[in-house]
Amino acid sequence: MLDSNLFPFSNGVLCCEGVSLERLAEKYGTPLFVTSRNSLVNQYRSFEKAFALLDHLTCYSVKANFNLHIIRTLAAEGCGFDVNSGGELYRALQAGADPAKIIMAGVGKSAAEIEYAISSGILMLKTESLSELRLIDEIAGRLGVQASVGIRVNPNVTAETHPYITTGDSKEKFGIDETDLAQVFSLIGAMDHVNLTALDMHIGSQIFDTEFYHAASEKLLDVLAVARSAGFAIRYFDIGGGFPVTYDPQKPATPIGHFAEKLIPLLEKAGTTILFEPGRFIAANSTVLVTRVLYRKRNHAGKEFVIVDAGMTELIRPALYQSHHEIVAVKPHDSMMVADVVGPVCESGDFFARARTIDAVGEGELLAVLSSGAYGSVMGNNYNGRLRPAEVMVDGDDATLIRKRDTFEQLIQNEV
Ligand code: LLP
């Protein structure tokens, strides 16, 4: 849901901070992602404030939105980063992130990615299998260094969220089962080039109930006790990301302060630096996707379609997770209508909303698809030969182009 202070209506037009979305659409074209810089900063600061009592490092999960300007904005605030691939590590480093504040996840890191991470001097690599651990030891040995490693534990806690984004259940591919941990500890004990510095988990995304974190953290605390008794000096206790945001005003997210209140007393028991990996919490509501209505049509059954110039190639979340995104007219109408808001892609799943009550917009008018900042642009693609859109960041009255729109030439440039 938008912060109406950062996305106000001014003279009847929706703005991002001090800049009219209509003006931005005219200048940069549509579809267009527009991000409020101050929203990112506010969300990061509110997370920091909530957990201020804990010795902690927040590592923004860049997979949510990895535009260099977004990483740079958060790095300037002192934020660390969680990356999931060599490509994300490259982005973070290019944006000027401090390697000592970067952690790397990934259930299938390649040898090249592991080598890149170790030689970049990042804070730690989270390992998810015995085989990967052996490879890390071998690569660190070849490089003549000690790799700082965290074990991602699968706590077997099934968080209530969309099944595609629950990750802490033992039937999922993520993490190492509790039953294998004794073997992992003895293996690491015998390794020359691996330093076990962290225990880690990530139980899923958009989790409303603090109990799931509580239960999983308790399990991780048990693992911590075992690791310590095996002689490992664990310095970091990483509880992952997954903190929720409000997409649908009917389903308001649990406030972050509530998570802090429930979790701080438990996490203090770890006696380590606590790591957090929020992605969505920081990015989701910072951004709107501005799209123009191309056509309206009504079918034989009287069903109304609003066909817009953005689609599942720009924001795949409704198609993939049936997720709700609010849709508002950039210039609101007095009258409303019920319509399907659909994109130009040749898939029936290419919709933003079905049977939604929206402003009675006409052809050529602008709509804003809200809460598009996390897992929006980053999951975009060129299916149907679509050009990935431009992105703009607004800070007060200033708007900066932070990603140019793709060109036709770029669509074929790698095809040799
Ligand atoms: N840490 C790890 C290891 C993760 O895998 C993720 C997200 C995060 C942190 C950040 O989670 P967040 O705080 O953003 O919930 N595309 C889906 C979400 C996939 C999340 C994948 N992992 C969506 O659009 O809902």
Key traits:
single chain; 416 residues; alpha/beta; Lyase, Ornithine Decarboxylase, Chain A, domain 1; TIM Barrel; 9-stranded mixed beta sheet; 8-stranded parallel β-barrel; 21 strands; binds ligand LLP
Task: Describe this entry's structure for a reader.
- The chain has 416 residues and is an alpha/beta fold.
- It has two domains: 9-36 and 284-412, Lyase, Ornithine Decarboxylase, Chain A, domain 1; 105-278, TIM Barrel (Alpha-Beta Barrel), CATH 3.20.20.10.
- The protein has helices spanning 21-28, 37-50, 68-76, 86-94, 111-119, 130-143, 181-189, 210-229, 256-268, 280-283, 317-321, 408-412; strands spanning 9-10, 13-16, 19-20, 32-36, 56-61, 80-83, 102-104, 124-127, 147-154, 176-177, 194-200, 236-238, 273-276, 287-298, 304-308, 327-329, 336-342, 351-359, 366-369, 390-395, 398-403.
- Strands 4, 14, 15, 16, 17, 18, 19, 20 and 21 form a nine-stranded mixed sheet that branches.
- The longest helix has 20 residues, at 210-229.
- The radius of gyration is 23 Å and the shape is elongated.
- The mean pLDDT is 96.
- The structure holds ligand LLP.
- GO terms for molecular function: diaminopimelate decarboxylase activity; pyridoxal phosphate binding.
- Residues 39-284 form the Orn/DAP/Arg decarboxylase 2 N-terminal domain.
